[in-house]
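Why do we care about 3D structure at all? Because function follows from shape, and shape follows, mostly, from sequence. That is the central idea of this module. The next example makes it concrete: a single protein chain, its amino acid sequence, and then its structure expressed as tokens.
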Amino acid sequence: MPAWERSEAYCEYVGFILALNEAVRSKPIGCNCDEGPGTKGIVSMLDTLSVWIDETPPIDQPQRFGNQAFRKWHQRVKDNGLKLLQDALPENLHRAVPELVEYLTESFGNSTRIDYGTGHEMAFAMLICCLFKIGALVDNERVAAVFRIFNRYLELVRKLQLTYRMEPAGSHGVWSLDDYQFLPFVWGSSQLVAHPLLEPRSFIQEDIIENNHKDYMFLSCIKFIQQVKTGPFAEHSNQLWNISAVESWTKVNGGLIKMYKAEVLAKYPVIQHVLFGSLLPFKPSSRQPPSMRGAGPTRRPVMAPPGIPGSQPKP
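And the structure:
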């Protein structure tokens, strides 16, 4: 793990997360943004994968979770991954496809366990990072990378989770941020920085969620959680309930970036599955990793484990 945190891959990935975090600051999903052929090609590929879900309905089986039809869908992705990326990218970039396809097939969950978690989400984020490195995406497509590509991916994996009843991979239960995702909370909180009306305390209000979930990724995550979980929000999503007590989205964003580093990038069960190659090499970096402070430090932990002052829900 220390070697990973000193690697070129770590520096590239952290820098990528922070660059996109800054690019979407204070912007709604529907804002105008540059979309080149690379963005349109990847979105079209994700649309195809969504159609394949429709063509692979869940089967009748005794267990509640982990429908085995997912294995058939995932095998189709593996069998056709090379062609999917070749169709999405210009021919002069096809030499990178054999490396990129490994990130793609890892992005949708594990076909043996039929589960999905932040490591799979990280694989797709690394795919986008690599697309920037090879020039399939360019700097002025940073906003589109989040609002067009990643948001479409988010819709797709939610469809997978609901259709095949996928298990959370490595969930920490009530003390985790979310059973499946993390990055949409990071980038989604950046979207809400300096919003004239929506404050952190607002996102647990039903009318706020309903009226704004299509424009803000953070609120779309809350809406999905409420769709799949029952009971009081403070009980099934305690960490998110805590966030509603933080005074500003700037502090929420900074705290979530720190938490992403600690709870995802510093966890061996996640990093053991990462592919290191020519695009994200494991060799030591000659530069310091970018700061994970985000927009600013927090006075107390935004995400604190049980029993630590500052982690209790507000009255």
